[in-house]
Every structure is written in C-alpha cells, then in structure tokens.
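--- STAGE predict ---
source: upstream dedup step, 1 unique chain passed
mode: sequence only
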Amino acid sequence: MFTQKQLEIFRTVMATRSVSGAANRLNLSQPSVSRILADLERAFGAPLFQRRSKGVLPTPEAEAFLEEVERSFAALTKLSEVAAQITRGERGVLSFATITAASLELVPATLARMRVAEKNISVAWQIKSSNWVIDIARSGTLRTGFANLLHMPMGMHILHEDSAPHMCWLPRDHALARKTGPLVMEDLAPYPLVGLLGQVSDEFTLRNIGANSGAPLGAETSIAALTMARACGIIPIVDIFTAHFWVGEHGGIARLIADLPYYRYATFEPLDGRASLIDRTFQQIFIEEQTRIKAWADTQ
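--- STAGE serialize ---
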C-alpha cells in the first residue's frame, strides 16, 4: 500500500527530475526524500528512477505509474471539492414528504430560495396524505415531513407546529366579499358549499350550514375543493396555504371563518436527528414560508 506522502514525493521528483529539487519544493531534507523514494520503489517492486550525477531519469515503469497516480490525485481533488460543496450546503440529497397543501407554494418557494436548480442537490419529494406522511416519517426513510394533524404524532421530533382558521374563497363580485374581517358559518348558510372531508364537512352537516347541507359536497384536498367550486359556482372552504396560492394565481378574496375548527399543521422529522446541513436549511426556510403565509391570513 502506498502512502500519500510517497505518492506526493514521486510526483514532485517526476516533475523536477531531481531529488534535491523535490526536497526544496516540498520543504523537506534531501535524505528524507531519498529514503521515502526508496521505500516507494520497494513497495512498487521495480526501480522507478535511474540515478545520475545530475538528477534522475524516470524508468518506463515510472512513466506508466505516473498516469495512474495523476488520476488518483485528480480523484482526491474532486473529493475535496465535493466535501467543500457539502459543507456549504451546495451538494447532497434532500428527502421529504408533504401533503398537497404544501405543494402549491410552500415547497416551490423554499426550493427556489435554496437555489437547488443551480446546485448539486438531489431532491426526492413525495406528496401524500397526512397519515402516510406521518407513517413514512416515523419509519425514518425521509428527513422532513409536513402534514395536517388532529393530534401531534408520537415518535417524531416536532420542528414547528401552528394552527389557523379555515378560509373561504370568493369572487370579488360576491356579496360576502364586501364584508370585512372574518366570517362565521351563519354567513355561509344561504350558499352551496364544498368543504374538506372530515372536520369541515362534518361540521357543516351537523349544524345544517349551506344551501346543499342535505347533499353535502366534500373534497379530500383544498385544491380539489377549489377546482370543484370554480366549475360548479359554489363556495369552497380551504386551508390558508391553498387559499394564498389560489388568490395569487386567480385573484378573488379569501376570508377567514372564525367558528370552524382550526386547521392544524406541523413540520417534523424522525427522532434520530440525522438531518444534514441541506435538510436543516430546507426546514428553516420552509418554516419561514409557513410563517409568512400565516401572517397574510391573519390580515384577511
């Protein structure tokens, strides 16, 4: 096995064609260079240089060996560059899963701020249901999860949690759009509604809210509720993240609904805490984006 020092001295002797010249360049004594070079030749198993009164002459074996040594040093240089990129957060793997609500704006804005397209960052992003995201995060097969939660999951480290009222989206010419501040469910009672399956749709049915309460409409995701509402001329009840995206893309007005159960969400990771620098950067910016949209919702 050759040492790094032996190979470095070999390259320098090949470049200078002189043991003393290599010693001067490497700031070593000439006897040290001669000894290390002799050790290298014994390990190599054949002479690498012919000694002359002035300098040395590489053997054909040395010329052939130099080609492989240079390849090895090029690989080591590349490894050093890769290590520097990793420590700067410019190279690595980013693995996370979110629900649809985060896919429209939160994640794209986060990845844009990280400039992943300009860096050597591999992104593995899965969009699944809340239960699936929780289960897969608990298993440790991804580094970050984001989901809508009724109860905080066990077996994970919660990085950020918050809640916000649900919102309804309205065309600007809608009668309810002229109201200011949050709405209540009674404001929505005369209109056909589509809400998220579960808490929202159940609450409307229980309290007989909406012109279509006898035949309620429900959707698994907020973006599905908005799409259905636009096609059918009804009022959708959605989460704040999807509402913010939809207003930005399609205009209209978003209003908080004060007396519906709150939309609770969290960002979390496995308990093992093996997140990389890239994971930590993603998590920080991702939470900042959530806070930005929550601040917007509070003003509606």
